[in-house]
């Protein structure tokens, strides 16, 4: 390196080594402007007699700073403020005392508008004016880099960041694979370089003995190091984007190891750092064309700096003798790209900075035939952003980078009050989201898998209020025109916000539906299927005293399994009903008074019960029946798990819940089952004392009031139902011990499905106790 280069290096370089702090030998103070107001985010450096920085800090929100000296002596304090001229003042530290300063910052701004440059040999002779201009521009870039480094080191703010890894085709146009993740915490640099000594010796691109190639990107510490300045030549960019000035750096002549080159861009009017583009030198031509990266910088309202966006592209080649793509031995296979973005910066409860909205684009198609769906309404729940698909199924929604729940509504799903949801991470708007939504028939097959009868959906409102009473029920009734000639019924609990769903309703019978609560009632509404399979109804609750009702659970007294088609009747009123598949039978509109209720079923002894009914009362009664005729049993051998695993595939296709397969569970190996479930934003894990964890929900519904696990300290909550291999192991009923998730070994699971709300829950798993969600587990067979 020639003497002129050494002179320029001496003008540009500032050593970054910091000595151990001595508490009693320090300089502290406050940075203020000409009006006396504190100025935050000012770089304050303590310089020794040789001009080397032995400590540096950013002034805080009140302008305060503290610098530690190595020993007593004469020091200088230098301030660097982006967009302003540097300032130096004297500070003498004597003995064991602390010097206190008030630093009044000058208001002399740096103006870069008049800078002009022409391309020339960067390590050749520099004119005095050019060298002075280059120094002034680099001083501003160095100040912003230092502020960014100090802000990250001191953890001066929290942030939400998005990182991504994607694989592109050899042309760098089409995305083959992509993965993204969201992180919350203090801001870090996007990458950490190898030590500067290693980079000088081996270069920025290294291929190991296993033929793996590593591309090193320069971190801020590398850019600020003396060694980087020694190994690179600098010049002003001859041209660039409008409104910016660039400093070009290139490896010094004679260096043969893989090197880095690029341009640092600053705003002309404010002298603020905007971005750095870099690529690689001393590589094969095809690698040099594709290997590159970029860092973008952001300044917050309070003066802090951070890296806002970043990426690095790395070509992947294979040795293929005879290839004509890049010479006889190398062929470009794909391009790997990794990067990320700062989405949100906060300090306490204040938002310091928010990313500019990006465009999330995608296509909505039906999951059966893959045809585009027009008029679909797409909503990012957490952002509140919405869009509508056009005739080709394409849509666009703007949002800042982050992880979102995407809700898709179509006309077919609206007919069933259903919503298709998925999770997506918005990174930089490159990926196109492909959403495959089920048709109404597919959703219906999932909601009511064992019935080809009608499906009734609708909503309940309560006299203009925003939520329903917790005990409200929706009941549909009709006269059975078959041999029994009895009154049939089905019932369900609506969500707290009002939506409900009823399955197994005849489409050709006169059906009425009503909503009932202990202190409110809705007038019955006639249901009309209009020759189809789906119908809708809107019910309005009004305060009032409904007539009495009876809900009977009929079961076999020996096996305790429910008895469907058991008849429950009040002969004096000529009223009867038949139990459903869950053994439940309901008689409504019973006048107050004492009535005899008869329960009978073929093969079982009849039971007569005398009950007193009062207005505004629903009596629930468990009725055991004793078998009197025993038929020879018939054994049917079938693989229950295999048969019902088909339902898992069907439910996953519809996509109304959360699903994990064996492959996805293996990726989470080593984690507890409760932590796996905790990734779902709609899940609540209640932890007890010791190895106890329980699956709960924020939904309104029945709540556990008595602890069921000794020494676990279970709190009252709305706990989800649990199914294992097609059997319900936890009903979610009051007083029943909740299911301990700590007993589940993820490595023994074949699959998992979770439904947060009754609106998502398939008909197979839906009942009155499923308001708190349903978790279905499928265990692995064999070892």
Your description of this structure?
With 783 residues, the chain is mainly beta. Strands 8, 9, 12, 13, 14, 15, 16, 17, 18 and 19 form a ten-stranded antiparallel beta sheet that branches.
Write the layout of secondary structure elements.
Blueprint: H1 3-12, E1 26-32, E2 43-47, E3 53-58, E4 64-68, E5 73-80, E6 87-93, E7 98-104, H2 128-153, E8 158-168, E9 175-186, H3 196-202, E10 205-207, E11 213-215, H4 220-223, H5 226-231, E12 232-236, E13 244-251, E14 259-267, E15 273-281, H6 285-290, E16 292-299, E17 305-319, E18 330-347, E19 350-354, E20 358-366, E21 377-380, E22 385-388, E23 394-399, E24 402-409, H7 411-414, E25 420-426, E26 432-437, H8 440-447, E27 454-462, E28 473-479, E29 487-492, E30 499-505, E31 511-517, E32 520-521, E33 525-527, E34 534-543, E35 548-556, E36 567-570, E37 575-578, E38 584-590, E39 593-601, E40 604-613, E41 618-625, H9 640-654, E42 658-661, H10 662-667, H11 673-677, E43 684-687, E44 693-697, E45 718-719, E46 721-724, E47 727-730, E48 749-755, E49 774-779
Parallel strand pairs: 1-7, 20-26, 27-34, 35-41, 46-49
Antiparallel strand pairs: 1-4, 2-3, 2-5, 5-6, 8-9, 8-18, 10-11, 12-13, 13-14, 14-15, 15-16, 16-17, 17-18, 18-19, 20-23, 21-22, 21-24, 24-25, 27-30, 28-29, 28-31, 31-32, 31-33, 32-34, 35-38, 36-37, 36-39, 39-40, 42-48, 43-44, 44-45, 46-47, 48-49
């Amino acid at each position: 390196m020639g003497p002129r280069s050494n002179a320029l290096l001496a003008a540009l370089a500032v050593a970054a080594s910091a000595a151990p702090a001595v508490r009693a030998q320090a300089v502290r103070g406050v940075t203020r402007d000409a009006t006396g107001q504190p100025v935050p985010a000012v770089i304050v450096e303590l310089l020794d007699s040789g001009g080397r920085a032995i400590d540096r800090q950013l002034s805080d929100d009140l302008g305060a700073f503290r610098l530690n000296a190595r020993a007593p002596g004469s020091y200088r304090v230098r301030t660097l403020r982006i967009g302003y001229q540097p300032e130096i003042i004297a500070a003498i530290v004597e003995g064991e005392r602390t010097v206190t300063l008030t630093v009044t910052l000058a208001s002399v701004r740096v103006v870069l508008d008049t800078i002009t440059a022409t391309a020339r040999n960067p390590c050749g002779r520099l004119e005095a004016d050019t060298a002075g201009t280059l120094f002034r521009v680099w001083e501003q870039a160095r100040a912003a880099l230092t502020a960014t480094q100090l802000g990250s080191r001191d953890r001066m703010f929290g942030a939400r960041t998005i990182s991504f890894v994607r694989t592109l085709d050899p042309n760098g146009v089409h995305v083959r694979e992509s993965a993204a993740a969201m992180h919350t915490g203090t801001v870090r640099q996007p990458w950490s370089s190898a030590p500067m000594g290693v980079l000088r010796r081996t270069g920025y691109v290294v291929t190991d003995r296993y033929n793996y190639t590593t591309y090193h990107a320069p971190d801020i510490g590398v850019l600020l190091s003396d060694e980087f300045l020694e190994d690179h030549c600098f010049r002003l960019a001859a041209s660039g984007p409008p409104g910016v000035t660039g400093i070009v750096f290139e490896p010094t002549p004679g260096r043969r190891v893989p090197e880095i080159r690029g341009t640092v861009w600053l705003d002309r009017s404010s002298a603020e750092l905007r971005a750095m583009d870099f690529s690689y030198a001393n590589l094969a031509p095809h690698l040099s064309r594709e290997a590159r990266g970029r860092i973008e910088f952001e300044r917050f309202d309070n003066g802090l700096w951070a890296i806002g966006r970043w990426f690095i592209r790395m070509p992947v080649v294979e040795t293929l003798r005879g290839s004509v793509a890049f010479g006889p031995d190398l062929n470009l296979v794909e391009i790997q790209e990794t990067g990320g973005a700062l989405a949100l910066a906060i300090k306490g409860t204040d938002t310091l900075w928010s990313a500019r909205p990006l465009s999330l684009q995608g296509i909505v198609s039906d999951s059966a035939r893959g045809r585009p769906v027009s008029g679909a309404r797409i909503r990012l729940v957490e952002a509140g952003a919405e869009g509508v698909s056009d005739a080709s199924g394409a849509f666009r929604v703007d949002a800042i980078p982050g992880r979102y729940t995407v809700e898709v509504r179509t006309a077919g799903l609206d007919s069933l009050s259903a919503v298709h949801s998925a999770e997506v991470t918005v990174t930089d708007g490159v990926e196109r989201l492909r959403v495959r939504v089920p048709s109404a028939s597919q959703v219906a097959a999932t909601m009511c898998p064992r019935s080809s009868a009608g499906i009734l959906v609708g909503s309940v409102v309560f006299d203009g209020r925003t939520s329903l009473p917790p005990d409200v029920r929706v009941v549909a009734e009709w006269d059975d025109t078959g041999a029994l000639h009895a009154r049939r019924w089905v019932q369900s609990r609506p969500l707290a916000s009002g939506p409900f769903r009823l399955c197994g309703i005849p489409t050709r019978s006169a059906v009425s539906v009503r909503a009932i609560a202990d202190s409110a009632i809705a007038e019955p509404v006639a249901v009309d299927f209009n020759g189809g399979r789906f119908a809708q109804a809107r019910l309005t609750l009004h305060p009032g005293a409904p007539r009495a009702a009876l809900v009977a659970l009929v079961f076999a007294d020996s096996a305790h399994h429910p008895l469907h088609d058991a008849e429950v009747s009040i002969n004096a009123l000529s009223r009867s009903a038949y139990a459903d598949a869950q053994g439940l039978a309901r008689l409504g509109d019973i006048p107050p008074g004492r009535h005899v209720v008869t329960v009978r079923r073929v093969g079982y002894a009849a039971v007569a019960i005398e009950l007193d009914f009062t207005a505004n009362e629903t009596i629930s009664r468990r009725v055991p029946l004793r078998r009197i005729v025993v038929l020879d049993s018939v054994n049917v051998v079938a693989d229950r798990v295999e048969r019902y695993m088909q339902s898992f595939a069907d439910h996953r296709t519809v996509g109304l819940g959360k699903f994990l397969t064996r492959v996805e569970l293996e990726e989470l190996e080593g984690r507890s089952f409760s932590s796996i479930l905790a990734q779902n934003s709609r899940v609540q894990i209640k932890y007890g004392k010791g190895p106890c964890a329980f699956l709960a929900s924020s939904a309104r519904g029945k709540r556990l009031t008595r602890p069921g696990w000794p020494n676990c300290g279970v709190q009252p909550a709305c706990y989800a139902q649990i199914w294992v291999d097609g059997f319900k192991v936890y009903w979610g009923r009051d007083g029943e011990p909740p299911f301990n998730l700590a007993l589940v070994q993820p490595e023994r699971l074949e699959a998992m499905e979770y439904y947060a709300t009754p609106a998502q829950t398939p008909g197979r798993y839906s009942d009155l106790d499923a308001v708190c969600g349903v978790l279905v587990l499928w265990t692995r067979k064999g070892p």
